[in-house]
């Protein structure tokens, strides 16, 4: 019989929420490294970077992928139901099998978030009235797919963005604008974001997808690997599907 699990999601420590590096940070970075390398190995077409590049990262580079000002790493932890050591009612912890992850960039200033006008993207609000975020690199380990991890990670992104947003404007609730840029062939991820309330709002180029995902170093490597014809395609063809979700802080 297949093992039963319960799942919890967590935002890894980042400078926005934690004053200094927690003592267990090197161990967290090693666990994230293992999950990320699994993602790059098993779903090579889904990500901007590659296993060949990231398997050479040093422990310091892995730490920098988590401890950063511009983004937070979200993980989903699987807890075997039969082996749960947790006290009933206690909050789930990072102990357990790391089975999924995602990266949430933001809050991004309007000038960085904006897409070129010909993308058809709707105008966004000013930074005084809303925070702007972009989700990227959602991954569920193959053994745990189809059990709602993708949805849980997206919900964790929404919750984190909402929690970071109140107080922007006194007397009024702030809004959250959360976006994802998707390759149109990735039906699973298109369905996943639709099922999570995201709406198709625009089309943009592969280059813009790399830029707004914060993957500029991967973009330089990508360019080197392309023929001149494909370079033009990635810079001009509007193939990335832009999906957006708007939320209000209660
Ligand atoms: C995409 C991915 C994260 C989905 O994870 P998951 O935990 O299996 O997804 P969920 O169980 O939360 O599925 C939620 C919804 O997503 C959609 N979905 C998930 N997998 C799907 C698939 N293979 N085909 C079509 N729709 C799919 C469905 O709408 C599903 O809702 P339903 O279960 O009510 O039908 C996972 O398949 C994955 O890691 N893929 C490889 C990495 C990748 O492509 N990442 C995207 C980078 S941009």
UniProtKB/TrEMBL annotation:
This is N-acetyltransferase domain-containing protein. GO terms for molecular function: acyltransferase activity, transferring groups other than amino-acyl groups. SUPFAM superfamilies: Acyl-CoA N-acyltransferases (Nat). CDD domains: NAT_SF. Signal peptide: none annotated. Residues 129-164 form the N-acetyltransferase domain.
